[in-house]
Structure formats: C-alpha cells, structure tokens
Specification:
By secondary structure, the chain is mainly alpha-helical. Helices cover about 45% and strands about 5% of the residues. The strands form two sheets. It has a three-stranded mixed beta sheet. Strands 2-3-4 form a three-stranded antiparallel beta sheet.
Length: about 500
C-alpha cells in the first residue's frame, strides 16, 4: 500500500495553516508589488507611490522613429531586456489569475503592474511589421556607467528580431505574456484584453514560422546577460499553452499535442526561470488534465510529479539541494529567482490538485497538496526572515534587511535630493560607498544567500545583492496565497 497523505479541499488546507503567522504576509504582498514602481521606465503616472523615482527613457525608440517608451528595467541597471521582461509579465499575470482573489486591496495594483509591462510589449510587437523589438540600450555601454535612470546619457540603441534574424524564444515568451495578461483584463477591460490576445496570436505565429534563437541573432548584446541557454523550443510550447488557456482555441491544443514531444514535453528539468519554461508549462498543462481530463495531457502531469518528487526530501526521485537553513539552492548567482518560482509552482499545483482530488505519486509515497503548501511556505518564510541570519531578503520588510542593494537608482541620491546631473563616472562613488542606499527600494527581493546561508550585504556583490523583476513576480502570487490564508 502506498503511503497516503490525506487530501483536503483548498479551503480546508488554508484553515489548517497556523492561525498566527510570524509574518505579515499582506504587508509583504503590498511591498512585493510596490517594488515594480521602482523599476518603471518612461513617464511616471500621477499615481506613482515611490516618489524618489522620476521620468526616464522618454526618447526610447526615437533613433528608429518608433515609440518604445515604458516597460521595466529588469534589475539594477538601466537596460530594458525583452526576454526577462516578458517572463516577468507572464508571471505577474499568472499570479493574478491564480491568486488574485486572495489579494484583497492589492489586486488593482498588481493588475497595474501587469499593464505597465503589457502596454510596452504591445508597442514592441506592433510598431513595425514583421519585427519584434526586444531590447533597449547596449548593456556593455550601460554597465560601464553607474547612473540614475533619470540621468542616462548612455546609448539607447534598440534591437529587434525579424524573419531574417529570428528570435523564437523572446517572441514566444512575449506571446505568452500578452496572452496571460489578456486573461487578467478579460472582465475589467474587454477591449484591451482582446487587443492583447490578438497581438499574442500574431507574435506566436511569427515565433513559430521563423524559428531560431535570439542569442544567435543578437549575441553581442544579449549574451552573457540573457542568453537563451535552453533554446527556443520550451518557449514555443509555453506560448502555445498560454494561448490555449487564454483563447480556448482548439488549434493551440492540437499544436501542443502534435509538437510537445519535440519541444521538451518529455524532458525532466527541475528549474523554472526566465530562460527555461519546461516545468512551468507542464504545471500549466496539468490543470487541463486534472480538472477536465483532456486526453493526451497525462504526460504533463507525470512529468510535473517528477518535478515535485525532486523537491520532497525522503521521496524517490529527490534530488534538490537545500542549504543547512533549508533554502532551495540552485545557483550561486541570484539563487532566489529559483526559490520564488518554485514556491509559486508548488502552490499553483497544490491548487490544481485540490480542485480535482488529485495527488502526486513519488514511488510508494503519495504526496498531497498540503505537503506542497508546507514546502512552499518554508521557502517563503526563509526569504522573509526565518533563516540562520535572521534577515529579510525583501528590502523594507522586517527589522533587518539588505541596506546596500546593487541598484543604481536606489544607491544614488534622488533627483529631488540632488537635482544636478550625475555623470557616468561620477556615479561610481555611490557604488563603492559604505553608506546604506539613500532610496529604499521597498519590496525588492535580492539575489540571496550562498549555499551555506551566508550573505554579504555588499553593493558590489551583485550576485547576492541585486534585485530583479523576475525574482519578485512569482513571489507576488506566493505571498497572495499566504496573505489570503491568514484571513481565511
């Protein structure tokens, strides 16, 4: 007989969580969304809450007579990288789709964060026929400076993929982002939602018809920063899965069933990130099998279960690495991106399992949704301060958090505090300063500790101290889950 952890409905699972939490998840949720206002590029709206930021990048695209104003800077620099930005929007949208009903008063702010990115992606996809603009600024030039976004005087070159120089990875991820965003606005703004979905279809068709990796087409400016190491096949399957969910069009389900075996459906890969979408796709497609028993999709549940088993200590298939303090550990650089994405997938899959009476098989052990929730909670709590260093890796949350964040705008006095122009080289005095950042980048989750739970609050150590939008985006959904649980 297999060992069986009892299955509970999602509502009962929420009630079974501890009634008094050590953390104010609703406050962490609020701050995790607020962070995106600190990453905005373009003309800031009257509703801007992080007041130390100002307008920036107002002429982006003008060198080619196109409008590429807006969007997000991905981390602590002033480049707009299309692949991580699109993934960020997909994950923000997925967070709202799955857990928006648990966000209470934060849902509108989360939707606004999605829209700031989807507005930009719409521009990037429609300003020129047979092209998708995928980057603004030369990162090599940008990284030779330490400047506030408001002071940028580095080249704002623009880069695109075309049918002659394809980028199926970035294009299919853009399609996924637009499709996911269309679901967010389906009821609140049907016209906008329709425009997002129609554009997503066109961009996906472009990605599929003209296949190739954008790392090959634009290697000098996307590598080593955001090379598509996993190739473009995973994004094509991911994009199709989101278009199927957003449109309900049987064409995309047929595409998935016909092409899945050559696009990574049968691969077991145990990380989910801006680069590799295989696990996320399997979780997403498992929903259709679990809840609707769609024929031909059982494979995705099997491989999702393999992923889950890789995370559960003591189970067959376990292969994850955890730090002595219990943090999932994948890589030295920006490890928390894998932690937040994993926590989100665990909670999302637990929701799918709970709604269908399903479970995960790990050899002779059957793992229930409640186990997945417990695993995710441990990771979320570690980030918020339940760790050996007793530090919150979310800036501005808790009594102790990183003060020397690797972030240009946060580390240099704001234009309000210091109105004069700070040039490329003059900014380095702030990078090397031992003083805390003068502007608190509230809600930012930094790269995080090493494999021994060690963390250097050092601005120069970008691997540990740099935040990014794709670390925060899945954390929004995870925090919404637990914020909702606390008030259930």
């Amino acid at each position: 007989m297999p060992t069986l952890f009892p299955l509970l409905s999602l509502s009962l699972l929420l009630l079974s969580l501890p009634s008094s939490s050590a953390f104010e998840y609703s406050d962490a949720l609020h701050k995790s969304i607020l962070f995106f206002e600190g990453q905005r590029s373009g003309k800031l709206p009257p509703t801007q809450r992080l007041q130390w930021r100002g307008n920036s990048g107002l002429s982006d695209g003008s060198s080619a007579n196109v409008d590429l104003v807006g969007g997000y800077y991905d981390g602590g620099d002033n480049v707009k990288f299309g692949l991580p930005m699109a993934f960020t929007i997909t994950m923000l949208a997925w967070s709202v789709i799955e857990f928006g009903d648990r966000m209470a008063g934060e849902k509108d702010y989360a939707a606004a964060a999605v829209r700031w990115g989807s507005d930009y992606l719409l521009k990037a996809a429609t300003v020129s026929p047979n092209a998708l603009y995928v980057q603004v600024a030369d990162p090599n030039a940008d990284h030779r400076c330490w400047e506030r976004p408001e002071d940028m005087d580095t080249p704002r070159n623009i880069y695109k993929v075309t049918n002659q120089n394809p980028g199926s990875d970035v294009a299919a991820e853009t399609a996924a982002a637009l499709a996911a965003a269309s679901i967010v606005f389906q009821h609140s703004d049907p016209s906008y939602s329709s425009r997002l979905l129609q554009t997503a279809k066109k961009v996906f068709d472009f990605a599929d018809r003209f296949r190739g990796s954008y790392s090959d087409s634009l290697s000098s400016v996307v590598c080593p920063f955001y090379c598509s190491y996993s190739g473009y096949q995973d994004e094509l399957l991911w994009g199709a899965a989101w278009l199927q969910r957003a449109s309900g069009n049987a064409t995309y389900m047929s595409y998935i069933k016909s092409n899945g075996h050559v696009l990574g459906a049968e691969d077991d890969d145990f990380s989910f990130s801006w680069d590799d979408k295989r696990v996320g796709t399997k979780v997403l497609l498992s929903k259709a099998f679990l809840e609707q028993k769609v024929a031909g999709l059982q494979l995705y549940k099997v491989h999702t279960d393999n992923y889950i088993c890789s995370l559960v200590p003591g189970s067959s298939g376990f292969q994850a690495q955890y730090t002595p303090g219990g943090l999932l550990y994948r890589e030295t650089g920006s490890n928390l991106q894998y932690v937040t994405s994993t926590a989100f997938l665990l909670l999302t899959y637990s929701k799918y399992l709970s709604s269908s009476g399903g479970y995960t098989n790990c050899g002779s052990t059957t793992v229930s949704a409640s186990t997945l929730i417990s695993l995710a909670k441990k990771q979320v709590d570690y980030i918020l301060g339940e760790n050996p260093a007793k530090i919150s890796y979310m800036v501005g949350f808790g009594g102790k958090y990183p003060l020397h964040v690797h972030h240009r705008g946060s580390s240099i006095p704001s234009t309000r505090a210091l109105p004069g122009h700070i040039s490329c080289n003059d900014g380095f005095q702030y990078l090397h300063s031992s003083s805390p950042n003068p502007n608190v980048l509230v809600g930012a989750i930094v790269g995080g500790p090493d494999s021994s739970d060690g963390f250097a609050d050092d601005r120069a150590n970008y691997q540990q101290s740099e935040p990014s939008t794709y670390i925060n985006a899945p954390m929004v959904g995870a925090l919404a889950f637990f914020a909702g649980a606390a008030t259930a």
